[in-house]
Amino acid sequence: MSTVQATAGGPARWPRFLLPVLGALVAWFALYGALQPAAIHLSRNLLRMDPATRLGSAVEFFVYEAPKVLMLLTLVVFGVGVVRSFFTPERTRAILAGKAESIGNVMAAGLGTVTPFCSCSAVPLFIGFLTAGVPLGVTFSFLISAPMVNEVALALLFGLFGWKVAALYLGTGLAIAIIAGWIIGRLKLERHVDPWVYETRAGEAGPAIGPLTWDERFAQGLEAVKEIVGRVWPYVLAGIVVGAGIHGWVPENFMASIMGKGAWWSVPLAVLIGVPMYSNAAGIIPVVHALLEKGAALGTVLAFMMSVIALSLPEMIILRKVLRPVLIGTFIGVVAVGIIVVGYLFNWLI
Question: For the chain, which residues make up each domain, given as ranges?
Answer without folding.
Answer: 17-199+215-349
